[in-house]
Batch of 4 targets.
Target 1
Amino acid sequence: MLNSSAGALTLLPFHFKRLDDSRHLIVNLNGEYATLSNEEFDRLLTARSPEELGALRFPLLGKHFVAEGDPSLAIELLAVKMRSKKAYMKDFTSLHMMVVTARCNCVCDYCQASCADPAAQGLDMTPEIAGKAVDIIFQSPSPGVKIEFQGGEPTLNWPVVRLIVEKAEAAAAATGKDVAFVLCSNLFEAKEEWADFCRKHGISISTSLDGPEPLHDLHRKSRCGESSHARLVRNLAFYRERVGPNSCCALLTITRDNLGHLREVVDHYRDMGFRSVFLRGLNPYGFAVKNHDSIGYSVEEFLEAYTDALDYIVELNAGGAYFAELYAELLLMRILTPFSTGFVDLQSPAGAGISGAVYNYDGSVYPADEGRMLARVGDDTFLMGNVLRDTHAEMFGGPLIRRLVRQSCVETLPVCASCVYQPYCGADPIRYHVECGDIRGRHPGSEFCKKNKGIFDHLFRKILDDNPKVMNVFWSWIQREGIRSVNREDS
Amino acid sequence: MVERISPSACKVAFNSGAYEREALSAAALRATDKFHVKVEPCGTDSHAVIFQCKNECDDGLMENAALDLINDALDEQVRLDLARRTGAIRETIYQHAFTPFDLRDKKC
């Protein structure tokens, strides 16, 4: 089959879907896409010579939907592109999340961590466990590691945060690896000691912001009764002054209450000096499950709000502001560029364990925070091991991780294997386990699948409309530059 | 060939000469979020897809589901045919993408 005679036409692998009554979208293994009329699609399927393709010939050749003569060069190019797209895998686990305490000074209605009272005992990571975890982390083959401090509220166990940073920096120097740190804090408290330490060691700060004060405080409640938003605003300014103006970023959690107000949330993020937002839906874990009736919503409701907010953000950018929606930015990078984009929650195979791992305060290790949350309610399916008794090889090369990798390749999963968006998408085996009891998922009913398909549909509608104003905004996000720097003719 | 077999169930027959069972199963799988679905032989030269609403449904829902199934079955048959034509090349691409360079040199 590889030795076709000169001039013969070879069809190369691709996926397709009907866009509407008159068009098909075709996407090859690496995500290069094209739209064809129904007649053109039929011509592609039935043509047996390049000439029969007519005007389609060179566009389809250029995007590797067909090859002429010996297809070996096309196959090699597609293989190189695929290797580039999957390059994020070669470094193995680079993101390590350390839950240094389960105690928290706030009680959020959707908390995945299911936080404990600050006075509770026995819920902090000990120095011994922290040290063992750092030893395990630096056995990762990744040339660079990122350590994220999580909780609860990690600043409640500040001595262990310090110890981890100092030990990790020593390990990085000894191994020649790079190391970066992120402190995931609610910023309810702030101290000069913490800020100075963060500045000295280049620690970035990630916090949570759900919108203007009434929306933020509605579900992010402090234990002492004070406004968590007021504290956040004050302490954000404090950290920006002492650690650096770009030292802090924020994550949004969308509940029923801010779902219909995402434009106001976006405006508030801009007022607070942020240049991006991640419009992130609720995940089905922890308090979010218990409180679903009051704070949850359907996928359809989420998609309606998301697409409206995204369109609003695009308008803001077209008007000269720079403000990105980070999930759209990631997906656009995958659709419009050949570059590798690892994102733990949407990659194939899934990033759980092979891109990121979670180290609980008691030394247990999980491939994702969701696995840790399931363990809290008695489901140990995703326990990789414990730093006190298991080696790196036993945990990261063990049967659980191998099973997750084998069964989370969208290229082989039912429905995913033939999905037109497959090259851009990924799997979430832990979420599938929660949804249907099977880590491979059951996609006709999967909310994860519906959400991502809905967003892909919306992005492709925008891309295929090819409005220069919108495309300039999309490229400005990909290039991380303001729209005036993106050089593209307006019609 | 759409037959209403009860207020909440429908049967669609497909000629086995035009639609393989694998294509019908793939198409039927897409309907399993809203329907209970079964694929079974129907006579000597056909297969039938029988689907029944999981919850309340009206005539419009059933009719649209049947029409969607007919189009999905065609699409899935096209996908099967494409997989046969391009499957070997697909495997070759993956092998070339992920085989270590030194091993590829030895194979050449």
Target 2
Amino acid sequence: MDQTVLQVSDFLALTNQTLEYAYPSVLVEGEVASFKISKGKFVFFDLKDQSGLVNCFMMIYGLRQPFEDGMRVRVLAQPRVTDWGKFSLTVREVLPVGQGSIKRALQLLKQKLEKEGLFDERRKRVLPYLPERVGVVSSIESAGYADFIKILNQRWGGVSIFSLDVQVQGGVAVDQIIGAINYFNQSSDPPEAIAVLRGGGSAEDLSAFNDELLVRAIAASRVPIIVGVGHEIDTTLADLAADVRAATPSNAAQILFPDKNQFAREVDQKQKRLLDIVQNEIKRVRITLHHAVEKMNMDMELSLEKYYVQIKRAESLLKQLNPNLVLQRGYSLVRNKGSKIVKKVEDVSLGETIEITSSRAIITAGVVDVREK
Amino acid sequence: MSEKNKSLKERLAELDQILEWFDTADIDLDEAMQKFEQGTKLAEDIKNDIANLENKVEVIKHKID
């Protein structure tokens, strides 16, 4: 038989060509072992089962979730032989397989992102009060989206909603949701908040909301994000990274917008408070005025009182000086011929007629004798 | 800024300011009556807005790849 003789490197190149032709890509499933990352760029691990083992290699940016030894995974890869004759799989995609592995991968991712601080309370922003412009990322045909719009219309008005229609499950969901979040963030007039909504579904359907790139996009969004992914069981990583988490799309509308009736009642309260304050103020002024007038009256009475006392004193003084009162005490008033009151010797002469006025009688008399007292 | 163009939020802020004034300032009865009238009008305008404003929903035609 005529056989071509090959040099080693040629043989390896030929083998790789053959492999590429025969197996442009394969899906291989097995258990991870000896997982390690070298120089922060190169990922090496073994894939094994009970009797076989194959080396695997990939670049770190192909790794969408963290893995560890013992987990079952499925790889999309291309087989090749290295320059030093080692057979290995060059992996393009890795997916966890089976509930156990999937849960574990999710746990690892959550721990990793938590350590980076993506879920920190302090990072979370407050949603704007009474937003007027809100971006919505959702499947427009879905019941969740319809619920959100319905509740919004019931509760509030004057809002502009900008909706971007995306898939919320399936292969393209992650890229589309990230694209939508970026679109709003990069807009020249971004909305005040973004609502990422999805109606309830089984746990598997929520996988997009546990994707690392999507969760990072939510955390990195400059516009505050409220996530309303309706489900009962688990909290997705998107929920943890969001600024606010709503239980459902309807709940998201309740959180974003107040109820107009409640709001009107609160405004009524404010009006009533205004009225109460003004009425109280008027009452207060009235009372102050009343007190002032009362005080004025009291002050006046006090001065009048003093006045009365003075008058009484004057009166009693006058009483004492009143000639009639003097006469009543027994004294008499003596007048001479010329009606002049007699006080001294010179005021009368012997034999002169004098008039004596006592308290009750007027006596006409003659002077018999006059002497100096 | 004409009365009509003031947004609901601006009116709310003004109303709250008036209430604050009543809580903290030395109240002059004349000024109080003025502010009372203002506040009442603001409250009525706000309630009117709440009852009548409508929402606009726009579906953006942007292809995401």
Target 3
Amino acid sequence: MKILKIFFAVFLFSGLTLAQFGSIGITDARSVGMAKTYNAVSDGVYSLGINPANLSLMNQGSIEVSSIFPLPTISARGGTNFLSIEEINYYFGGVSGESRVLSEEDKTNLDKLFENGGSLFTNINLNWVSFSFKPSEEFGAFGISVTDFFGGKLHFPEAIADLFINGTTDGKVYDMNNSEIKSWWTRFYNISYSHNLNFIKPSFLDQFAFGFSVKFIQGFAYAGTEEVGTSFTTSGNGEINGTAKLLAYTSFSNNFGVKYEFQNEDSDFNFSLFPEQAGSGFGFDFGLSAAWDESWRISLAVTDIGKVNWYSNAATFISEGDILLDDITNKSQRDSVIDLITGTAAPVERFFTQLPTAIRFGISHKFSTYIDDAFPGDLLVAFDYNQGLNELPGNSLTPRLSFGAEWRIGFSLPVIRTGFGFGGIEGFTWSYGVGYDAGIVEFSLATNAAHSLIFTNASGWLSATLSSRWKIN
Amino acid sequence: MLKLVLRFLAAIFFVFSIESCVDLPTDIVLPEWEVDLTIPVMNRYHTLDDILNSYENKNIQPSGINDSIYLIESDNYSIESDIFQFLSIEGPQLAETQIVVPPTGIETSFEIAFPDGAELDSAKFLSGDIFIATNNQSNSNLNIQLTFPGFRNNSGNVLTVDHQHQPQSGLTTNIDLSGFSYKLPVGQSGKDKIKVVVITSQNSSGFSNATIELQTSGFQLSRVAGNLPPKSLGRKRGSFPLNIENVTDLRGNVVLREAVMELTGEYLTSNTNNFAIELADVNIIAKRNEGADLFLQDNSGNSNFNFAFAGSSMQQTFDESNSNIYEFIAHLPDSIIIEADFILNPNHQNGTAQITDSIRFNSFFQTKSFIGLKESSFEDTSNVNLTSEERSALQNSRSAIMYLEFENGMPLSSHLKIDILDSEFNYLFTLSENGNNEMLFFEAAPTDENGEVIQSLKAPVIKMHLDSLEIQQFANAYYSVYKVGVATEEAFQDPNKIIAIRPSAWASYRVYADVTYNVDPEGN
């Protein structure tokens, strides 16, 4: 079962970060410390992929650079939405190095954990370079970034767990219809521009800006199910009958050396950080942001409007038919059932996938000693609403709400950040982080799974994020 | 700068030290548990035709009509004879004559008979001899010319012999008739004689005396038209093994309802107007290697049959109305023996023949699968084909209950015993109901008074418990020895009930198992 161990390890400990992707994707450590509350608070290179209009909130002449050099930018995030850390330890930690033998009570409890099915996620981001510059108010501000995104999500239905834990039951229907797999590797080349809309801004606003981003996307790999409609019933004499329906697509760069069953020629795996593309596409971000009273900000954006056209080594996996298994010694029957479940591969010229389009809204308020003397240092409080418009990796149709706070005490003390998140895939999260702003360089550390550390029976997430940026002016 | 670095390192330590407080497994160890599964092992439907087809028995074939019945047929058993002996008229013949030759010479003729009383219109000689001896008894020179007007050589020349004698001298000539043809000379009435024309001449003024002597021998014909004497070609015999599998088990256990034996005699020739044939004292014997033989007999008990025919063939059918065919076939011999005397032209009549002709006698029998079978058993060994992964999976099974549902649409009851053996053919255990090691029994489908299946019969579900030891043993199974005994319904009644065994007869069975399986992903 080494494969399962690697599977768990990848899903629990993964990735690199910077640049937002989707409504639930990981971002910079500053935002993570505030429970990923970033729509109204992000600026500079941190606004790329969130709201390009925030670029205009930079000071005139500001330059920001972020890359893997000279300081690494690292984020690790992964987990499940059905197992807590305590439960992971109990069921998968073994007993004195040996497998835990589950009692009937253990099996019942484990089965309950899967009563809504189970999802596993991973997000890996690698930012090669980000740059932002605001030469002047008149010119506006622009930014560029090159970011890789590897994302995967697996949702398996309760029926699978039930079958593995409890075995077969006479007359029981096993519904696999909400099974889902989606994963991809893409590279985004992003150019953003923002300019103020002072000529139309209401008088009570200090700043009003718009922004847009144009992204060219290289796709290197995609595998995803579009439709799964499989269910079956077991009977007392062991007969299994049901229906199966599957529609899935895959596309891979030539570097992966993928050989489908309908192909005769072998090809070699040849890993490269710059592989041949398997697909390409374009995406767009649009955003508005405004500020008033030197303490309030509001932000609205729609990100990742677009699609990717996959055309290299593209295949479709299709099956539709009735499942009947009443003779496992009949090889043709076994093969038929396997073909129905896994689908038959056929070449396809091309197919399209959407980008993880999301609507983002945020509002923030800064309590500052320089403004109202009501609070020592600067206390920034923010609220976000992120709504994904599909279920692609990094996105979720379940809205995510978050509240974050950042306290810059001053006196060379670190900046303290915390926040609470609700919804999305993770459900409730509690984050905290620290940061240092040394003027020319700023670095931050955070985790958005603080609750996992204290309430180990409440969450299955772990996270740690480190990011930095160089700032000029 | 130092402070900055220190603050940075402290922050990293702060965050990751908190994270390190989380007790996470350093090594993922998957749990182990038992799960109850109901596995559909097998669900099959077989017709009797499916089963027999898998044995590729060419002697058992469906009759190919609706509601077909099996035709259990023998091979064709044949004995043959050529007619070389019939075309041989070898008996020597002798003829002698005395002639007086006047000074002017003389032409005369005489005859010599064909051997064996043969009467020929025409013939072709494969071999044969005519010996000629002439003797001049006078004191003058004498010429004697002998002409055989019926004989011509390959060049079409009439056979002629010239003897030129000195005074008081004798001369001989031997003629080899190989390749000669014969045709009855025009005007000659007797077909049984060879005509010889004698022409003599001399240079004397007086009369001369001479003798002529002819002798024929070794006439072998390759073709003839005429009347040859009846001749026996000898008694011919053929022995044909039946090669019935498990035949000794079936003896005494099989009763038949319909059976037929067909006997065929053929004269194989390209000619018309053939000679008549007689197959005399024909015996057809069912022979056992050990035990009594049984002769095919007609209703009067006669086992020596005579068949005569003119023309190309004859056929004789024996069935239950005119013979002991049931008893004969049910004797289930190891071999069939056919003997007969082949006699050509028994009625001494005209006909034609050539040396390539032959006579064939053929027998063939057929029965339909209307039988009463008291008990027939056979035993066989087959491989238990399990992959290493399957054997490994079996070893994770804790216990199992196998269920066998059997529905019998065949009018055959059966006993079944399956022993499981390991790779060294050591006995492991017997698959039996409730571990009683007894044979599994399945009743025959009920039949009506005509032996036809009325409806199928569902057997009670058979449960076979396998404990953990037996499952572990099954994981080491490489061979299964199965013993099967079948019988028809009411086979032991007197008289036996005859059942129709049709290709469409079927049986279906379903095997499934309740298994307690130990899921052990770590492979402990």
Target 4
Amino acid sequence: MKLTLYIGRRLIVLAVLLLLISFVIFSMLAISPGGPEQMLLGTDPPTPEAIAAIRARYHLDDPFLVQYWQWLSSALQFDLGESIQTGEKVTAVLGDRLSVTAGLALYALILSLLVSIPAGLAAGASNGGLVDRAITTLTTFAVSAPSFTTGILLLYLFSVHFGWFPAFGAGDPTFADRIWHYTLPAIALALTMIALITRQTRAAALGVYASDATTFARARGLPGTVVWGRYTLLNSSLPVVTSTGQVIAYFLTGTVLVEAVFSIPGVGSLVVSSVTNKDIPLVQGVALFAAAVVLLVNFLADLAYMAIDPRVRKSILK
Amino acid sequence: MTVMKRRTGMKAAIALAATITLALTGCSPGSNSGDKGPAGDDTLTWGVLAGPRSLDPAHGYNTTSAAAYTNMLEPLVSVDPETLQAEPALAVSWEQPDEKTWVFQIRDGVTFWNGDPLTAEDVAFSLSRMFDPEEASETASKFVNFDSVEATGSLEVTVNLKNADKLTLYNIGIGAPIMQKKYAEEHADDLGGSEGLIMGTGPFKVVSYNPATGVTMERNDDYWGEKPAIREVTLEVINDVESLRLALSAGEIDGTFDVPLMSSSQWEKMDHTNLTFSPSPFLYYLSLDTSAEPWSDIHVRRAVAHAIDKDGLVDALFGGHGDVADSLVNQDLLQALTPDTDVQPIFDDLTKYEFDIDMAKDELAKSAFPNGFEVTVPFRSDQPEQGRMLQVISESLDEIGITLTPQEQTSQQFLAYFNAHKDLAMQPGRLGSYAPEPGAILNSMLGEAGTKENGYNSANYVSQNIQGLLVTYQQSTNPAEQVEATQSIMEEVADQVPYIPLYFSASVIALNDGYSYEGTYSNEWTAFYGHWAAHISPAE
């Protein structure tokens, strides 16, 4: 019951925030100079009639609040309008792009976690030793290389030179083809986040591994998997949950450089192209989506805390 | 989600590691080696930097969309890239009973891909919709002089103009490729989109289309003209220019038009790839706002003209693949007006400003600003060659006391500022010609209408002499008279320097040596009036 109330309250706050954000984005679009019709007619000198006809078609001359209300009233019925550049429905575009990005993000997340969690735990256990220093150095390299550069390098090595992976695109919508196309970009993305999660895990593991409970478990001769699995991992997972949440939000919205290098039609490149072309319905849709993702992921992270740590559960639901 | 992963962590991790290993080792396609030999067959994969915005020219009037729809939809009239003359395409002949009326005879026996015959109704519909305000076509500017288009016979169409317009053939050719009326009306809400697609008569028909990922087309075996050698063409979107090059190198695409001239030497070094360049009338220039100081002073304008090394710029910016421009008028376009009389003497006699810093200093000394001044010049971030040009000339201008600061802006910012038409000062410009004649570009850049918002007379240069000459050119039907008027305009522009013409760029096609391109490819004439994919065949 208390849990339901808590979730309900959070969802209402989320809805209000989304409304506010949509209004702020719309205002910023209205204030910024230039109009989408200029991006449509850029090639040849346009006549005033041609410009007027396009502006009328997209209601660009209506008063600001009227335009916002037109957008909002459709949005509440889940119709986010159509792209000015291509005429496609915004919900369809977001859907296509999201399915691509979500697959890539999941793959990259799994790769990151697979590498960083064991690395972080090992670094924490070694604490100042050779393993710790080696891992710290490697992850620093990984985070220092810009994703754009690692992307091109991976492309050149594994696609052009060895020919193991394709050079562009998301491939056919089959599981196998997607995995094959996503591997290089997922690696490029994962490298950027490995350092973050490794450091978080290492810091948390340091504390937990040296604690009395873990030392006693080791002294009692419990097998390594139990010490690691039940004691260290779960207890050090809170900071990792935070950083994983941040990473998911980043992977879902901020991957434009990797998408550009590998020509992956994802949400990141959509953000950039829609803003560059001042494609108002698309910008609104994408901004709303990005805000919803960040807010939802934070919310889920909070729920995860409550599930993991009984102390947090008690204090929130008291 | 994260909690679940922890509990089944070990097993999931092992399963995934296995999948990844399998993916890495098992899936190596044979055709993806880095050492690509000739691989011509009857399919063609073409790299494009952006997807077509629409298959309907009314809502996708740009080079990336045209690369798709010009293979599917045909114009009434096309332009031969070698002779630069109008050629019959879907129209077999045309005549002008009077200067405001054009009558076209439509080719007989042409069918759409669905088997329906091409009729005059389809032609009238395709043209009329381009100047229907409800349609809000992006090509509407080409039809500003059109009053009505009617089917006046089963294979005859009459165009009625409000004002005589000698560019009518080209306006129709580039602005209204022919589509089927019935299909367009049935698919009105998504015409040209990924569901609605399009219905045309062209050598290729559309199979599938997505604005983000590209288009697949297949050969139209019932095409009325010469059938293409290629059976299936796929346009693949590769957003980054370097990735495009790597894809060509890996043999994953067979060719592209989007070679950046600035780094063309890198492309030329690739094995199994051939680059072919052809001259283009695409003009790069500097515009100087003659309505405000310091540019209103002719000595300032002449001083800057002397401080620019055009040959050096063509080498640095286009790898030598460009032609220095001594005039806003392109020689090939002027020559096209009068194929029998050589126009070279006109260009030889023009006033030219040679690259000479001392002469630049002398000119500036004669001006009201002998000690120089400062100017900030904006350029678009998606036109980096303009930024480079500004950096290069700022070095020379520094020597004569003018401090030029290039300022990068997003295309949106730049367009907003340019279209507001205020405080233009110095602007880097580029403008193409859509018709094989010099008048349209001169009209845009020197006409009085261009001094308003959204206008292209960014030099705000309005001279009575030139206004008269522009009218003479527009109204004359005598090519010799047109050439004379153009020559006089060229001479005044060269003397008064409201614009500094810089260079004309080049069209380029990069092709895997398993394929060959027949004829000349032109960014202007082939890309918008022709079907480029039908010119490609597997090499012998």
